[in-house]
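User: D-glycerate dehydrogenase. Structure?
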Amino acid sequence: MIAPRNVLVVIPPHVGGRASGAGLAALLPDGARVTVVEAADEDPAALRAAHVVVTALAPVTAAHLAAAPGLRLVQCASHGFDYVDSAAARDRGVPVCTIGSSGAEAHNVAEQTFALMLALAKQLVPAHTALTRADWALPRLQRSLTELSGKTLGIVGLGHIGQQVARRAAAFDMTVLYTARRRVSEETEGRLGGARRLPLDDLLRASDYVTLHVPLTGETRHLLDARRLALLKPTAFVVNTARGALIDQDALADALEKGTLAGAGIDVFDPEPPTPALRLLRAPNVVLSPHTAGVTRETLVRIALAAVRNVSAFLGGEPPEDVVNAPG
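Assistant: Predicted structure:
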């Protein structure tokens, strides 16, 4: 057992209101003490005393780790972990965990992915905007309207979220391609509509829609850069509900402005919130949402419960799950 089991919950201001510390403590083993702050250095005493930090997209830096000598675990309330210095935590012997195996965000992120794809295919944003201006835009828009059926969807990353996207793609009669470090089983590929694994560059050349579902790491930063965006068909669409920095945002704006890419659906940005100078905010044929893919009422409950379950088990002496910075 870890005593006295101090848990520091960090929530960035732009996400929303603070959670109830008392409510969280009630879900943890007896004796757990919870402090909720909006920045890890907001309460230095709480950080110094913390045994566990639970972070909901708020940065946990090497300096924060150094300021918490008793820290034993960092729990991310998300599938991603790019906002935590996981290498510095590994050097300190502190595991960093996600909620990846719970699939807590998978259903809703998949739904948001298809919402963006459908909005692009059916030109919903320009159609709505035109009608609010008393502009019957049908003659102009019908030349660019398309359908998902019969198209090829390239999924970059076939974890819990990617597989939920593939299931929905099969229901839309789409051909499913994917790229991943390891091939999933033939049985899984069959359940996902006959999904077929390809190298990333080949997937980009073959796809009508490309959607990203990988974590942001040093290896995946700007995974879609100018070179790779140029591999896409001029009729293709890119959707990103994972992390903004997976795409070179300026290169994407270039492709949209030049017409070498048909459109993009973007839910995530680098940084967040985006600055007014971000070119994507004014690029043609984009559908934008403010990182809402994982934050429905239902999803937030599942995320919180998954994070609390892992912390509770750890405080009870069990090894943590979904560790992303294990040595070696």
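The CA atoms of residues 225 and 248 lie 5 Å apart. The chain has two domains: 6-103+297-315, 106-288.
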